[in-house]
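Onboarding guide, step 5: your first structure request.
Type a short instruction followed by the sequence, for example:

Predict the 3D structure of this protein.
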Amino acid sequence: MEFSYDVIVIGGGHAGSEAACASARLGARTCLITMDMNKIAQMSCNPAVGGIAKGQIVREIDALGGHTGEVTDATAIQFRMLNRSKGPAMWSPRSQCDRGKFIWKWREVLENQSNLDIWQDQVVELCVKTDQEGNPVVCGVHTLLDVSFKAPCVVITAGTFLNGLMHIGRTRIPGGRCAEPAALHLTESITRYGIRQGRMKTGTPVRIDGRSVHFDEMEQQPGDEDFHQFSFMGQRRPLPQLPCWITYTNPKVHERLRAALPDSPLFNGQIQSIGPRYCPSIETKLVTFADKDQHQLFLEPEGTDTREFYLNGFSSSLPIDAQIEALKEIPAFRDLKIYRPGYAIEYDYFDPTQLHHTLESKVVSGLFLAGQVNGTTGYEEAAGQGLIAGLNAALKCAAAGSGNTFRSFTLARDEAYIGVLIDDLVTKGVDEPYRMFTSRAEYRILLRQDDADRRLTERGFEIGAVDQNRLQHWLSKKKEIDRIISFTQDFSVKMERINPHLEQLGTTPLERGCRLNTLLARPQLNVNNLAPAIPQLATLMDSIRDRREETLEAAEVMIKYEGYIRREREFADKMHRLEDIRIDGHFDYSSLQSLSTEARQKLERIRPVSIGQASRIPGVSPSDINVLLVLLGR
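The system replies with C-alpha cells like these:
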C-alpha cells in the first residue's frame, strides 16, 4: 500500500503529538505514525508536567495554540506553583497528572483534529531522493507492515526508541521503554546521509504498590487550591486533588545500595553513554555526594483510580533485589511491594548543531527532528520542539505548493523559553541530555509564566496556529490589564485613608498622597489588600469577569516590576542588532587565519546565521567576533 501526505510525524509521544496537531492546524495533510495508539503521549517516567522553567514552556505552547497545557489541566491531580517565595520571573507551574487519563485525553485531541490521520505501525526506513543539485531530500518513509508513505516533509520524534536498550543490573533488554520494542534500523537509514549520531542514557524509578506503604510515617505534601493552571483557555481542574508524600533515605539504605554497585550498569562499564546531570540515579547520588546521610524522596500518585505510586528521586538501574532490599530499610516501606523495578535505557540521538532554528536538518531537506532525538530530556522540552517542528514542516509544504518562499516560524531568546531551548541546541550542541532551567535564559524577567500569551498569541495567530477564539480571549484580557495599569498610574491615593491598613501590613505610613502604582510597587502590597481601603479599586476588580485572578496577577506583576522589565527589554533590543547582522554564506571560515583555530573549526561546523548566534558558540571569543565584524565592514 501507498499513502500520500504533506507531513508525516514519526512517534506519538509529547513531541509527536504537538507536531502532528500543529501541522494539521495549519492545513497540512498530516499523518501521525505511532507504534501503539494506546500509548499516545505516554508519560514514560514521572506522570507530571511542568517544573522550573519547564512550566513556562508549557504556558508558551498553550499561548501558541498547542494542547499540552489543556490536557494537563484536564488530568491534573495535584497542582503547585513552584518558587513563589521568589520573584515572578522564577514562578513555575507544575502538575501531577493521572497517567492513564492523560493518554486518553491526548488521544481525544488527536482524533478530533481535522487534517490529521493516525496510523499504528513502526517506521523502519527514511526514504530520500536527490534534487537537481545532488542534495538529499526527504520523500517519505517505509514501515514494518510494508506500507510506503509519501511526503515532502517528515518530522522524527522517536524519543528513546531508536535502538533503545534497557538495563536492570546485568540484565539487558532491547526496548524503547518497559514492555515496548525498540525501533531498529531507522537510525541507520538517517545517518547514511551524513547526519551525526550519538548515544545517551536516561532512567526511571521503581513503581510502588500503595497498599504496602505506611503513609502515616511520611510527611504529606498537599497541592495548591488557588486559581493557577496551565492553559490560558481551559476550564478549572475537574479531577480530585491528591497529596504527595515525602520521605528520606538513610545510612542503611545507602549501605545496601553501595554493596550492589559492582552490578550497576553505570559503574561496571556496561553503560558507556551520558545520562542527565540534573536528574541523577540514586547510585550516582551515592557516589557524587558521598558525604550525605540522606536524600529526599517524593512518593507521587499515578492516578485517581490506581494504587500505583511513582518514587521521585530513586531512579535506578541496580538489580531488582538491591532496589527492593534498600527501600525496605526506609520505615514507611518496610512492607514494600512493587509493580516493577527502576531501569536505565540507552538510545540514539542526532547532533542538533546540524539543524536550522526551524528544526529542519541542514543535511537532508524536508527532514525535521524534535524531542529526545535532539539530545534533550523532559516532556516539556520535547513538546516545545514538536510544536515548532510541526509548524515549520506545514509552512514549508504550503510554500512549496504555492511557489512562494518558505517563511519560517522561529522564536528568539527574548521571546520564549522555547527560543532559548532551540538556540542552545543548534548553537551549542549537547554532551549530555539537555534540560531547561531558568538560569539558561538571559531574559528571565521577560519570559515569565504569566505573560506567555502577551508574548506569543498574536504571533501564533499571524501564521494560523492560533484560532480567532483564542486571539479574542487574549485581546479581551489585554484590554483589562491595560485598564488596570492605566487606573493605577492615574489614580492618586490619599494616604490618611489607608494608613491604618499599611500599619497592619508592616509598612511605614506615609504623610502625603501618591500614585496607586507607586504604592503597588511595595512588596507587601497588592490589589487584594489595598482594595478594602480604596473603593474605586474594588469596583474595578469587580468589573473583571473572565479569569479575574489571573488578569489581576498579570497586571500587578507588570506594575511592580515595570522598571526591571523596561530595562531588560532595552538590553534585549540592543542585542537584536547582532542578530540582524546576517553572516550565513558570507565566509569560508577555514581560510580566515585571523580567527583562532577553535573558532574556525566551530564556525565551520555550526555555520551560524548571524553574528549574534556566532557570539554564543562555545569557543568563539569576543576577539573572533570583532574579526568577523571588521571583515563584514570591508
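Each response can be followed by summary notes, for example: The longest strand covers residues 197-209.
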